[in-house]
Amino acid sequence: MYSRFVAGEAEALADFLAGEPWPFHVHERVDRADVLQRVAENHYDETYWIEADGERAGIVRLFDLEDETPMFDLRISARHRGKGLGRSAVRWLTDRLFGEFPHVERIEGTTRQDNAAMRRVFRRCGYVKEAHYRRAWPDASGHRHDSVGYAIIRRDWQTGETTVPDFHDE
């Protein structure tokens, strides 16, 4: 279901990313030439294809792997959304990061407040809302959306428990 992207697949990645809009990402439209340039700059070193129904349905890009708190970018093509691929991908990347990188203490992800599907994915995968950033996410039209940050800590992943931050500490 997951296969590592290799630089020889640059054209396929560029086609995939530039081939449709990504409404809940900072840049809704991706420029094909930019993807090719970023591949040449090793931007997609830790990127994995998500495969479903015999085709490439999405990508997961892991980054900041040297940090104790890596992050990720997840994109599922429009026609494959709503089929559980996002949830499977977040569970897969969580298990991979905690299982293969002993220095990782927590994993973070951020999404727009209005991306209800991704917010459900985070919660169903044991991630906890830790931050709410007001008017922090501009879209292509200049409208500013709130963004929300989620994370899972190693202890919660190991125990299956969910610890919630104390937001009432003032």
Q: Describe it for me?
A:
- With 170 residues, the protein is of the alpha+beta class.
- It has one domain: Aminopeptidase.
- Helices cover 29% and strands 31% of the residues.
- It contains five helices and seven strands.
- The strands form two sheets. The protein has a four-stranded antiparallel sheet, covered by helices on one side.
- A hairpin with a 7-residue loop joins strand 3 and strand 4.
- Helix 1 runs antiparallel to helix 2.
- The mean pLDDT is 95.
- This is N-acetyltransferase domain-containing protein.
- It comes from Lentzea roselyniae.
- It holds the Pfam family Acetyltransf_1.
- InterPro entries: Acyl_CoA_acyltransferase, GNAT_dom, Ribosomal_N-acetyltransferase.
Topology at a glance:
Layout: E1 2-4, H1 10-18, H2 32-40, E2 47-52, E3 55-63, E4 71-76, H3 85-100, E5 106-112, H4 116-124, E6 128-138, E7 144-153, H5 154-159
Antiparallel strand pairs: 1-2, 2-3, 3-4, 5-7, 6-7
Protein name: N-acetyltransferase domain-containing protein
Organism: Lentzea roselyniae
Domain N-acetyltransferase: 3-155
